[in-house]
Amino acid sequence: MKRFQSITALSLAGALFLTLPALGGPQAKTYQVTGPVLELTDTTIVVQKGDEKWQVARDAGTKVAGDIKVGAKVTIQYRCVATEVEVKGEKPDKKTGPVKAEKPKPASDK
C-alpha cells in the first residue's frame, strides 16, 4: 500500500513539474509564415513568402509534423524572442538625478 502511495505521489509531482511552465505566466505572441522550403539545416529553415526569404531558427525542441524537405510547403509557428537588450541615452531619474543648484535668494531688508 505504501509503495502505491509513493508511486502516486511521484506521478503527481512529475505531472505538476511538467505543467508549471505552462502556468508560469504569459508567453510571447505566436506568429506564422507559410511557403515552400528553400533551404534546410539542423538550425534553420528558409521559406519563400512572396518575394521575401524568411529564415527561421530551429533547435532540438522544434516540433515537426511530417517529412520536412526542400520544396515542401510548410507553415511555421514562431515567436520573437529578445536575445540582448542595450539601453542607450538613459535619462537620469527625477528622484536620483543631478541636483540643480538653487539661485541665491536676495537678502531681505529688515
How do you describe this structure in short?
The chain is α+β, with helices and mostly antiparallel strands. It contains one helix and four strands.
* Gyration radius over CA: 28 Å
Shape: elongated
User: Class of one domain, according to the CATH hierarchy?
Assistant: Mainly Beta
Q: What fold name stands as the CATH topology of one domain?
A: SH3 type barrels
CATH architecture of one domain: Roll
Strand-residue fraction? 25-35%
Mean pLDDT: 80
Structural class determined from secondary elements: alpha+beta
Runs with pLDDT <50, length 5+?
Answer: none
Chain-wise SSE layout:
Blueprint (H helix, E strand, L loop, with lengths): L1 H22 L6 E11 L3 E6 L2 E6 L15 E7 L31
Please provide a written account of the structure.
It is a single chain. The model has no long low-confidence stretch (mean pLDDT about 80). This protein is α+β, with helices and mostly antiparallel strands and about 110 residues long. Strand 1 (about 30-40) and strand 2 form a beta hairpin. It has a domain at about 25-80: SH3 type barrels (Roll), CATH 2.30.30. It is built from one helix and four strands, in the order H-E-E-E-E. The protein has a four-stranded antiparallel beta sheet, with no helix packed on it.
